[in-house]
Amino acid sequence: MELSNKLRWDQFLILAAALMSPAITVLCNDILSLKVAGDPVLTPNSVCLRLAGLSKRQMRMCVRNPDVTASALQGIQVAIHECQHQLRDQRWNCSSLEGFGKLPLHNSILNRGFRESAFSLALLAAGVAHSVASACSMGKLRGCGCEAKRRQDDDKIRLKLTQLQLQTLQKGGAAHPSALLKPLPDELSSMQDTWEWGGCSHDIRFGDRFSRDWLDSRGSPRDIHARMRIHNNRVGRQIVTDNMTRKCKCHGTSGSCQFKTCWHVSPEFRLVGSILKEKFLTAIFVNSQNKNNGVFNPRTENGASGTQGGLGGGRRRIMSRELVYFEKSPDFCEHDVSIDSPGTHGRICNKTSYSTDSCSSLCCGRGHNILKQTRSERCNCRFHWCCYVLCEECRHTEWVNVCK
What we know:
With 404 residues, this protein is an alpha+beta fold. The chain has helices spanning 2-20, 44-47, 56-64, 66-86, 115-137, 147-172, 186-191, 204-215, 224-242, 269-281, 359-362; strands at 23-28, 195-197, 245-251, 259-265, 284-285, 324-325, 335-336, 341-342, 348-349, 368-384, 388-403. Strand 3 and strand 4 form a beta hairpin.
């Protein structure tokens, strides 16, 4: 009883300290409402029936693979957060993409041809591919993974270490079994390969395919918007594929690195977002005529950022790797549901800036007020399998400039 009381008192102290702390852990953007620690049971009932707005094809995919769908939804969450980070200084800052209990796939702006639409589509497609590929390597999905390969790799590592140690015995003439515990001599270590493939790579092929099946239209695209969506989705996924990196682990006795096994891992999603942000700033404005031949023709009036030679020095850009759009963006100054614009009233601006976060730009000429404000915002977000985002709530009290 005394131990039980002590545990309750310790738990109370921890909770009290958390409540008094300026950073409080909170759950946010939980699309599936699965606020549970550990691995939830992912069934068609717990995943598919909670989502509104799924197409018939998406519902069939979800029923067949609820665990993969849940991972894809987490990728959408990651993409929304990254979108808000990358466009935090823009008039349209992705805030309207976030909604509890619903997917952003049918938001108005994703059905338009704006530069912002292109960026959002590419980022969402990248998020799905990235999350599914990562979940595969964790062994969380039934449809992919490499548990059997892990066992094979363990056997291969043991065999490799035994062979290397036997070579050590033969070379040094040692007969005592304790020699097996010694690291390899430098000259022998240099003779064997420095690394070989092993471990459990992030299955980017599986992630890419699921992202394509989940988000892209089937058949030939019938109009400019469908072609733009498929194109930008492909660009987003390609960024993930192009930036896969090699990660290695050392094997050997007593912490030595007699040989290494290496595998592919997905890039940090912040890198994916940063690359797509650069492509957003130089996106190509294309003709909207519906030739339906899969070829985009840049508009010459778009200036340096809209032509194939627009990267400077006459160097041609590869259209297949650039974001494309066909509608000039509105100013996003006022609330307008038809274009998914929340407006910029109440946005915090920087009066000393000359960039897009300046008060003159964000406030659209309406002016701003100076207020003392205590505000809370999400910070230090971590994405947990599955399917929620755990953030800290950071509170700030400061004088701010707020758009009228």
